[in-house]
Amino acid sequence: MYRDGLCASIYYVWMVNIKLIAREWNILIPYIDYGLCEGCGACAEVFPDLFEMRGEKAWVINAGSFDQEKHPDIVQVCPFGAITLG
Q1: How far apart (Å, rounded) are the C-alpha atoms in residues 5 and 3?
Q2: Which residues is 85 bridged to in the sheet?
Q3: Domains of the chain: residue spans and CATH
Q4: pLDDT of residue 15
Q5: How far apart are CA 60 and CA 84, in angstroms?
C-alpha cells in the first residue's frame, strides 16, 4: 500500500500525537486518511503551502500554519474525502 512502509508508520504515529495535542489546545489541523487518498494531487495543487506529493500520496506539511479562514475549502478540495480536520 505504501511505497515506504516505515515512513508511513512514523508519519501515522506523528499525526496521532499531533491530533491529541491539537484537541487539548482546541486547534484544528488537516490530516489525510491514507486509506482514502488516491494520490490525485488536488490538495497539493490548490493548497501548496499545506500539502505536497511524496510518491503516490499527499502529505500534510506546515500543519501549524492552517487557518480555517484562509483555507475554508480545504476538506472539499479532495474528491475522495481523504482530508479531515482534527
Answers
A1: 6
A2: 30
A3: 5-85 (3.30.70.20)
A4: 61
A5: 11
Q: Encode pLDDT of 48-70 as tens digits.
A: 999 999 999 999 998 888 888 88
Which phi and psi angles does 54 have, rounded to 5°?
Answer: -130, 105
pTM of the model: 0.70
Q: Which residues contact 33 (CB under 8 A, 6 or more apart)?
A: 81, 82, 83, 84
Between the CA of residue 62 and those of 1, 3, 85, what are the distances in Å?
A: 25, 22, 14
Q: Which regions in the chain score pLDDT beneath 50?
A: 1-2
Please give the single-letter amino acid code of residue 28: L
71 and 29 Cβ atoms separated by less than 8 Å: no
Could you tell me if 10 and 65 are in contact, meaning their C-beta atoms sit under 8 angstroms apart?
Answer: no
* Alpha carbon distance 72, 39 (integer Å): 21
Per-residue pLDDT, 42: 97
What distance in Å separates the CA atoms of residue 82 and residue 31, rounded to the nearest whole number?
Answer: 8
